Amino acid sequence: QVQLVETGGGLVQAGGSLRLSCVASGRSVSVDVTGWFRQAPGKDYEFVVAITWRGGIAYYADSVKGRFTISRDNAKNTVYLQMNSLKPEDTAVYYCAARRGSQIATTRFEYDYWGQGTQVTVSS
User: Fold this and answer.
1) Which helix (H) or strand (E) segment is 23 a member of?
2) What pLDDT, in 10s, does the model give residues 103-115?
3) How far is it, in rounded angstroms, from Cα 99 to Cα 46?
4) Could you give the count of Cα atoms lying within 13 Å of 76 in the half-sphere of its Cβ?
5) 47 has which bridge partners?
6) Greatest CA span in the chain, whole angstroms?
7) Separation between Cα atoms, residue 117 and residue 124, nearest integer Å
8) Would the pLDDT of 49 be above 90?
9) Residue 87, Cβ neighbours under 10 Å: how many?
10) Which of 3, 69, 117, 124 has its CA 20 to 30 A from that of 80?
11) For residue 63, which of 83, 41, 43 has the smallest C-alpha distance?
């Protein structure tokens, strides 16, 4: 079925930038929403942003609005997360997730497929 693979995590200084990629293989057109969650040590999953494949509609969490930009390449089945002006509080494992349907959701319980996660560390 659907497999998600995230890449691009790493260590960056505060104020720097990083670009994450998520390749969704075996995706059906019925799986129209792909999003990003993050989990800091000892914290719960936090919604970051999601986008629809067909219409390109995006919804951002307030904490990243204006700093992060999500985009997708339908031909490559790849979603990108451009992260600028990174802060230490952005440090977390970032997960790519997908859900069936075309409605954007903001809780992890509403997503059906998950990637393995990629570590993002922002130093001060």
Assistant:
1) strand 18-25
2) 999 999 999 999 9
3) 16
4) 10
5) 37
6) 42
7) 23
8) yes
9) 14
10) 124
11) 83
